[in-house]
Amino acid sequence: MASLRAHIGAWMVRRKVRARLGTMRDIGQIRQVFNGATFPDPPGATYEPASLGGVPGEWVRPVGGGGRRLFYLHGGGFVACSARTHRPVTGALATRGFTVFAPDYRLAPEHPFPAGRDDALVAWCAFAEGGPAGIAGDSAGGNLALAVMLAARDRGLPMPRAAALFSPVTDLTAQSGSRVSNALLDAMFDPVALANLMPMYLAGHDAADPQVSPLLADLAGLPPLLLHVGEREILRDDSVRLAERARAAGVDATAEVFPVVNHVWQFADRALPEARRSLDTAAAFLERHVAAARG
Predict the structure, then answer these.
(1) Mind listing the pLDDT tens digit for each residue in 39-94?
(2) Domain-by-domain residue ranges, the chain?
(3) CATH of the domain spanning 4-294
(4) What backbone torsions phi and psi does residue 189 show, to the nearest 5 degrees?
């Protein structure tokens, strides 16, 4: 059963985000909406600007340092947000015992595919030189995390030990399933608003390319996957179907569907019980696999 706070949170997101996004096409206005999160930085973490492989970003560490290593890719529809806007998530993971690097990959439409994917892969390879690590991401960042894993597998590069993905976009071709059934229920997106973002990222590239729609890729050889998504999201099936296809390819994959919550509800770690449960579960999952890799 969903908490009362989940209902209130979804109602607030519907009013403040979905109602503003609508059919908006101006990139400046879209970025204003996406970058307008008001959650404070978690106090149990430190934040330090840095770069890896020439890609800027920031380290987020537990106060006192230490922790398992985690590479985090922020969401924002491929067009907005940053390591800074996603501190409510990366900081929450740091307080759960992770040293996190979050890259500021290049954004569309100024830098369409494959720029963001390439930045994420370069930064991941530099990060992976430090030893076993997990990878995580939300929304568009979940898409990029999958793209990084697929590229690393195909190129013989170091692989993450496990991946935690929050409401990832996995199929840019989808026009049915939860894209339709949840069109009125999703607190953040309607299908039109989401569809308006995709051409900015693709810039004419084929949406059916597995590099941009990981659901359509051969998923064999990926590390264990944990996916969390909201039952009412238009992206629900992106997670559910990816987990099904991954399991069919021999991958340890689990998709957990949460009732009522809005897209990437993990931002509300300090206020929402469902956010705390999601982050606690993801942290335990990542900790278990990264710790096992270290022996």
Answers:
(1) 889 999 999 999 999 999 999 999 988 889 999 999 999 999 999 999 999 999 99
(2) 4-294
(3) 3.40.50.1820
(4) -115, 145
